[in-house]
Amino acid sequence: MASYNQELAKKQSHDGVVAGTKAAGLAAILTAIPTVAIARKLPWGRANLNYTAQALVISTVAGAAYFIVADKTVLASARRNAFKNNEAGN
User: What keywords appear on the UniProt entry (predicted)?
Assistant: First the structure.
């Protein structure tokens, strides 16, 4: 039973990593476009958003998206499997 639980946990964490990576990539693209546009077109952006600031904004959003989606995916899988195990035990 322990090996089944370990395999299930490994699959759930892998699913979380895959979903988080997809979300981080999408968030990076969707954040990069307006960030770079603002840094090029608006006077405030030209004055305040150098390359380092742009990279910081984009990577912060991508990192947050990764951890939020990965956490939600793992928790949803664990909840779903807990209900399955509870029904099987009754």
Answer: Membrane, Transmembrane, Transmembrane helix
Q: pTM here?
A: 0.83
Cβ(46)–Cβ(39) below 8 Å = yes
Measure the CA–CA gap between 60 and 66, rounded to whole angstroms. Answer: 10
Kindly calculate the radius of gyration of the chain based on its CA atoms and give it in whole angstroms.
20
**Torsion from C-alpha of 68, 4, 81, 17, nearest 10 degrees:** 20
44: CB partners within 8 A, 6+ apart: 38
**C-alpha pair distances (Å), 40 with each of 19, 24, 35, 37:** 32, 24, 9, 5
71, 17 in Cβ contact below 8 A?
Answer: no
* CB-based contact 81:9 (threshold 8 Å): no
Tokens standing for residue 54 = 């742009």
Q: How far apart are CA 33 and CA 24, in angstroms?
A: 14
